[in-house]
Amino acid sequence: xxxxxxxxxxxxxxxxxxxxxxxxxxxxxxxxxxxxxxxxxxxxxxxxxxxxxxxxxxxxxxxxxxxxxxxxxxxxxxxxxxxxxxxxxxxxxxxxxxxxxxxxxxxxxxxxxxxxxxxxxxxxxxxxxxxxxxxxxxxxxxxxxxxxxxxxxxxxxxxxxxxxxxxxxxxxxxxxxxxxxxxxxxxx
Length: 188
Known about the structure:
Blueprint: E1 17-18, H1 20-31, E2 47-52, E3 55-69, E4 72-81, E5 85-95, E6 106-108, E7 113-114, H2 116-144, E8 148-155, E9 158-164, H3 171-187
Antiparallel strand pairs: 1-9, 2-3, 3-4, 4-5, 5-6, 5-7, 8-9
Helix pairs in contact: 1-2
């Protein structure tokens, strides 16, 4: 009996779907400026200081809690300042469905939920940090496959990433696009 050779599958580091636990680690690293959190002993309170224009807040990394609900990602992070004490800020990203053609778009509240003073000062920074981590993961996922990011959606208890082949514009289309961009700049 001859044995059939089974082709080896490529094992990717960046998975198609991230569960809540993996997403939590991704977000914790982003909040810590992409520091290696494995080097910090588990017995220590893992926290980092954010400093922006002279304002500071302590970000408690171990307080990160997230849930994937329907088409939404809900993230809670405790921040602490001298003025406010420690309080959670909650960021919600709502994604489209898997059939939505705008696959790399999510909506969020104008301000994070939680303590009004913290939300007014640090809410936008928190939203942008979390969103940058998600987009960065979508890009890394696509790069590993030699493709471009197409979408991210909440599906089956995880955040699912999809990729597509890059669209290469013919020279004529690229020239038309560049002409339109120059005209738009000239009008400004």
